[in-house]
Amino acid sequence: MKSQPDLKLLATFLAVVRRGSMAEAAAELGYVPSAVSQHVAALERDLGVELIVRRPGSRLVVTGAGRSLAQAAETLFDATARFQDTAAGIANREIAELRFGIYPSAMTYLIPGVLATLRARRGGPRLRLVVVETDEGVPRVTSGDLDLLVAYRYLPEDPPAPSDSLSVTLLGREPLVLVTGAEPGRRRPPVLADCLEREWVSGHARNPDRRLLQRWAGRLGIAPQVTLETDDLHSMLAMIRAGLAVGFIPATLLAEGHETGVERVALPPEADPLHREILAVSRPGARPPVVDELAGLLAAALEKVGALGAGGPRTG
C-alpha cells in the first residue's frame, strides 16, 4: 500500500460514492465513465482492498472499507480547503493575529482611544498587545516575535534605525514639557530661572533622555543638578508633583486633564523646544493593512498631543 493515496483518485472515488454511479460521477467530473472506473480500480490496488462492489444492472455498493475511506477523505478535503483559504488569506494580508509591542506610557495614554476607533471601523485580525520598552522590543521585531513596535527615540543617532532587517517610520514628534510642582497662591507662572537651583529628575546618566537634557542645557549655558534618577516616567511625575524636583515630561502624560499637581515652566525664547520621536518599527516588506491603519491613527493622536505640547509658555 502506498503511504498516501493519490488525491486525484480519492476525489474521483468520493464523486462515485456521492452519486452512486460511475456514469454520474464521470458527468460531474468531466471524465468518460471508463476513466472513472480506472481511477477507482487504481485506488483499490494502491490500498489493497475492495472499495466498491460492482454488479451489472444494479447501483454500486460501497463496502465497509469504502465507507471508512470516504469519511476520512471528506475530512481530508475539508481540511485542505480550510488550509487553502487560510493560505490565500495570508497571501492577501488577512492575518488571524498580530502582535504589537507598545511602550508603557503609549499603552496608557495613546492606545486605548486608537484601538477603540480601529475596532469600530473594521473586523480584521485579533491584536495582541505587549508592553515593552524600545530597547527590548527592537530585537523581538527582528526575530519575528512582534509584528510591529511602537517605539520612541530621544536622539537621532540612537536606535532604532532603518536596516536590512528593520523598517522605521516616523509617526510624530511628542513634545517634552518642563514642569514643576504646583504651588497654591503662586503669583506668576514659573520660569526657567526659578528652576536652576532646584533639584531635577531625569533618567540615568547614559539614558537618551538624560543625554538630551545635557545637550539642551549646554546650549543654554546652564547646568541642571539631576539628583533624582529613574527610568519610570510615572515616578518622575510623582516626584515633581510632590515638589521634590523639576523635569521634562512627555506631553502625552500631561494631556487631557492629567496636569493635576504640576505647572508648566515658561522657557526663554532662546531655549530649543524638546521632543522625542515616536516610531513604527516593523520588518521590511508589505505589511497587513491593519498595521498601516493603526500607524495612521497613532500619527493623528500624536499630532493632537503635539499641538497641546507646542503651546507651552514662553518668557520674553
What is the topology?
Layout: H1 7-19, H2 22-29, H3 33-47, E1 52-53, E2 61-62, H4 64-91, E3 97-102, H5 104-109, H6 111-121, E4 126-131, H7 134-143, E5 148-153, E6 167-181, H8 192-195, E7 199-202, H9 208-220, E8 225-229, H10 233-241, E9 247-250, E10 262-264, E11 274-282, H11 289-310
Parallel strand pairs: 3-4, 3-5, 7-8
Antiparallel strand pairs: 1-2, 5-11, 6-9, 6-10, 6-11
Helix pairs in contact: 1-2, 1-3, 1-4, 2-3, 6-11
Keywords:
316 residues, alpha/beta, Arc Repressor Mutant, subunit A, D-Maltodextrin-Binding Protein, domain 2, 2 domains, rod-shaped
Any overview of this molecule?
This protein is of the alpha/beta class and 316 residues long. The protein has two domains: 7-91, Arc Repressor Mutant, subunit A, CATH 1.10.10; 97-310, D-Maltodextrin-Binding Protein, domain 2 (3-Layer(aba) Sandwich). Helix content is 44%, strand content 20%. The chain has helices at residues 7-19, 22-29, 33-47, 64-91, 104-109, 111-121, 134-143, 192-195, 208-220, 233-241, 289-310, and strands at residues 52-53, 61-62, 97-102, 126-131, 148-153, 167-181, 199-202, 225-229, 247-250, 262-264, 274-282. Strands 3, 4, 5, 6, 9, 10 and 11 form a seven-stranded mixed β-sheet that branches. Strands 1-2 form a two-stranded antiparallel sheet. Strand 1 and strand 2 (61-62) form a beta hairpin. Helix 1 (7-19) packs across helix 2 (22-29), helix 1 packs across helix 4 (64-91) and helix 6 crosses helix 11 (289-310). It is rod-shaped. Mean pLDDT is 84; it is low at 90-95.
